[in-house]
Amino acid sequence: MDDNLSNNSKNCVILLCAGKSQRMGKFDKTTSEFNNKPIFLYSLEKFLSNDQIDEIIIVASEQNKVTIKENLPNSHQKKVTIIQGSNERKGSVSNAINYIAPFQPKNIIIHDSARPF
To answer: Which one, of 116, 113, 117, lies nearest residue 14 by Cα?
Structure first.
């Protein structure tokens, strides 16, 4: 288990980035660029700028883990943990909830990173 989470965590975000984008021609929406920035970064930056958010869990696919990690702001890497996603959204959410459950967060916010606005 990663040491980024602590028992003091209150508000955790699960940012879903493991989708296959099947309806979009099977390209990765979350790491596709929009205005010279990967789409997932729009949501991530909003959560990072919110002082009510204690921890962010990014659920990534095996194919996009490296791209996501390369685009994380260095100053916030301690607040963000990347975990493995699943073949389906419900499996990715389940993986993330199981990951953070031992830390008993007060609130869990689940967001689909492909819809940043």
So the answer is: 113
